[in-house]
């Protein structure tokens, strides 16, 4: 999932052309050989392609496909009034899903918040656990904030998450291990009295 999420954010000229062909069924954009030509083509046919894009978004099956359409819509039509209204209308529906990581992945593209603020808002509102918040911070390469969330956990985080954290910060990893080892000893000693 991490690779797909990060790859989605970086697309090529061919990806743009494929997207426009996919939503419109037309190959007119094939005559464009530069990114600025593609943008000019979309600008020239904005109403038509905006309608195609919004239809494709509404017909998306699953969070990954929806995220793909959000990325492309933001690239081609960011700031368009109808796009902003669509985002506002979809936000409550996205929040109603029961998949915290998917919620973040979608809201990341429709809310004007930096990653750390969005993760914290979702954690504070109860949509993410501490471990999920830490994971997303690692995905976004915010190692210090991931460390803060992991230290706030009541119990030792999952080993896979710690290993992922270790790939970014060896010192932080050993500090976490020490912290949770000490916490476990303290809770055992308190439990014996």
Helix-strand sequence? HHHHHHHHHHHH
Per DSSP, what share of the residues sits in E-state strands of 2 or more residues? under 5%
DSSP summary, beta strand count:
0
Rg of Cα set: 21 Å
Largest sheet: none
Mean pLDDT: 91
Core attributes:
193 residues; mainly alpha; 74% helix; elongated
Short overview:
The chain is an all-alpha fold.
Q: Explain this structure to me?
A:
This protein is mostly helical and 193 residues long. The longest helix has 22 residues, at 170-191. It has helices spanning 2-8, 13-24, 35-44, 46-58, 63-77, 81-95, 100-110, 115-124, 130-139, 143-151, 159-166, 170-191. The chain has a domain at 2-112. Helix 6 packs antiparallel against helix 7 (100-110) and helix 11 (159-166) packs antiparallel against helix 12 (170-191).
């Amino acid at each position: 999932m991490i690779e797909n999420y990060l790859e989605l954010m970086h697309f090529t000229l061919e990806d743009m052309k494929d997207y426009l062909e996919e939503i419109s069924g037309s190959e007119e954009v094939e005559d464009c050989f530069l990114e600025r030509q593609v943008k000019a083509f979309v600008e020239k046919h904005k109403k038509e392609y905006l309608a195609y894009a919004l239809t494709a978004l509404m017909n998306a099956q699953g969070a990954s496909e929806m995220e793909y359409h959000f990325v492309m819509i933001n690239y081609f039509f960011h700031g368009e009034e109808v796009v902003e209204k669509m985002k506002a209308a979809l936000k409550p529906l996205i929040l109603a899903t029961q998949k915290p990581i998917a919620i973040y992945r979608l809201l990341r593209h429709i809310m004007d918040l930096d990653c750390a603020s969005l993760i914290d808002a979702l954690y504070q509102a109860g949509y993410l656990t501490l471990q999920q918040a830490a994971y997303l911070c690692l995905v976004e390469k915010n190692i210090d904030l991931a460390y803060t969330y992991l230290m706030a956990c009541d119990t030792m985080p999952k080993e896979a998450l710690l290993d992922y954290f270790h790939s970014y910060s060896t010192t932080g990893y050993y500090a976490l291990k020490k912290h949770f080892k000490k916490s476990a000893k303290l809770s055992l000693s308190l439990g014996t009295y």
